[in-house]
């Protein structure tokens, strides 16, 4: 069996090793996520120095090792120099890379993830540096597509409760829809309020029934919940029961066993993580498209809200924080201060 193999991959993460080496985490088409040592790559004149940088695509020859594989040859196929020239683009690229690191599998081909990640890096690089909202829009677009590829996309076209389609109402300036991270997407506030009222009524009915049972006042006016019809008291015809009641002085009345037990699966009232305006929902609904559409009236703060929603949702689904998101916050806070 050969101790070397070839792969095409993009560098997602680097870590110093010893005095002159690096450990590079690479997403490859053929083998998924691999970690390999780039020997001597931190030396000034190393041939692997530039080739082991972030977001460099290489054709690699790798030697298998006991604990870590080793890069023996690397030929650069593509770089994204425009990302390093803009802090917002670089932060957005690292943000997407963190999600890829969470989703990628090892020892399995990852062609779709590899192609999708490279496509969104290319789009980010092409965004004008004078257009901060464009960076945010492409970042949100990339996050949504990566979540969709992993089967984790939030539901934004229909209500998670009623399963009815949601259409933003721009004629009402106060129109809103809920977004529930635990429920997995958008929730109609009207449907949630109806469910809340139904649950309140059911609780009141259940409490009334329990109180009547405790006082022995159940009759035709207080039917057993979920029974097909009320249970009626009748006199017992059992001679043994009659003898027993005569000796004890109690009534021989008992209940007909005509009630049915009905199991009711109560629908949970979802927690609303945030509320979306008509514009914010519109932007979210368009993220599933292959290309970003220009939407009239969309402003920077709308894209900021959408990114925040997707960030919280992705962190919940992936079970870990996205550290590069703090760079996005810093960049756009500084941008806002500069334009005020």
Jot down its keywords.
OB fold (Dihydrolipoamide Acetyltransferase, E2P); 340 residues; 3-stranded antiparallel beta sheet; 9 helices; alpha+beta; 5-stranded mixed beta barrel; de novo design (two linked rop proteins)
CATH class of the domain at 111-189 and 271-339: Mainly Alpha
Overall average residue pLDDT: 87
What summary fits the major beta sheet?
Answer: 5 strands, mixed, barrel
Question: What strand line-up does the widest sheet have?
Answer: 1-2-3-5-4
Please, what is the CATH homologous superfamily of the domain at 111-189 and 271-339?
Recombination protein O, C-terminal domain
Number of strands: 10
Helix content percent band: 25-40%
Q: How much is the radius of gyration in Å?
A: 31 Å
Structural class: alpha+beta
InterPro entries: ARFGAP/RecO, DNA_rep/recomb_RecO_N, NA-bd_OB-fold, RecO, RecO_C
Protein name: DNA repair protein RecO
Pfam family, one: RecO_C
Keywords: DNA damage, DNA recombination, DNA repair
Secondary structure elements and pairings:
Layout: E1 4-17, E2 21-28, E3 32-38, E4 57-63, E5 69-78, H1 81-84, H2 87-103, H3 111-126, H4 132-149, E6 177-180, E7 185-187, H5 189-215, E8 233-235, H6 239-248, E9 253-255, E10 274-276, H7 278-286, H8 300-318, H9 325-339
Describe this entry's structure for a reader.
With 340 residues, the chain is an alpha+beta fold. Among the domains are: 4-79, Beta Barrel (OB fold (Dihydrolipoamide Acetyltransferase, E2P)); 111-189 and 271-339, Recombination protein O, C-terminal domain (de novo design (two linked rop proteins), Up-down Bundle). Helices cover 40% and strands 18% of the residues. It is built from 9 helices and 10 strands. It has helices spanning 81-84, 87-103, 111-126, 132-149, 189-215, 239-248, 278-286, 300-318, 325-339, and strands at residues 4-17, 21-28, 32-38, 57-63, 69-78, 177-180, 185-187, 233-235, 253-255, 274-276. The strands form 3 sheets. The protein has a 5-stranded mixed beta barrel with strand order 1-2-3-5-4. Strand 2 and strand 3 form a beta hairpin. Helix 2 packs parallel to helix 4, helix 4 runs parallel beside helix 8 (300-318) and helix 7 packs across helix 8. It starts with a strand and ends with a helix. The model is unreliable at 224-237 and 239-256 (pLDDT under 50).
